[in-house]
Protein: cinnamoyl-CoA reductase
Amino acid sequence: MPSVLGKLVCVTGAGGFIASWLVKLLLEKGYTVRGTVRNPDDPKNSHLRELEGAKERLILCRADLNDYGSIREAINGCDGVFHTASPVTDDPEQMVEPAVNGAKNVIRAAAEAKVCRLVLTSSIGAVYMDPNRDPEQAVDESCWSDLEFCKNTKNWYCYGKAVSEQAAWDMANELGVDMVVINPVLVLGPLLQPTVNASVLHILKYLTGSAKTYANSIQGYVHVKDVALAQILLFETPSASGRYLCVESVIHRAEVVEVLAKFFPEYPIPTKCSDEKNPRKKPYKFSNQKLRELGLEFTPVKQCLYDTVKSLQEKGHIPIPKQNDEPEPEPVHIQS
Structure:
């Protein structure tokens, strides 16, 4: 890809967990970034102004995904768009319609502005919720969540993600927008924003004593920096197309608490499973080959967990133990 100096890109929902990292890495690479936020003056966005290069090359603009005029203004003149803003809720009314309308508005504005490429952040939620999938078959980019199953189980997050991604593909194809989609699993790692987001809360509960047991369930994990690097890679690689599954590991909650207890034994990490009657759930197989082929190297899940806890300590969300001499994970791939 030619030099990025002078290239202007828009990041929607710039204050979010993944988006903040994306803004940070884009600025470090030399891009000029226009970040959309609900309120540029809100102190919760102040971390963005402190990023390296922000003074010179970050413009925060007030925009609402449901207000086409504000989105068009933010995207106008941009070379590329990273659409990361989306509601995270289990309320169907707050999840589905705003996510679909927001994606449509961003794609319409991108088409009008004739951007080179739009990178849409979807989710594993749009991919793996399918009761009829063969457990021996690896989850990959060809998989889609079963909408009826999501509705029947009231999994509105996955339903909303699948519906909004499908609507985005339909609109991008109709308007001729060059769009690629990234589908990350649960994202962990250091927080740049001051508040604890939903995915990091998933780990925080094991450190505060609020979770007395862990669930008999499995989860895919990926490092936040890897997601941001992948988004930039998808923007900068002309041959990139379609969907890209962004996942490093799929592991059982028992392994999560084992890793946490090993590195941070001073916290009240649960040791009992809430369901000891049923067999232990098996992780699904997955393929992250498409991103690996583009050159992305994934951070091991143990490092993700370690970095998350260190960040929660540094941000003051959990007390730092007096003798903090926990072993740091080796920065090599650890077989789990």
Residues 128 and 145 are 5 Å apart (CA to CA). The chain has a mean pLDDT of 92. Residues 8-188+224-248+283-298 form a domain with the Rossmann fold fold (CATH 3.40.50.720). The two ends are 36 Å apart (CA to CA).
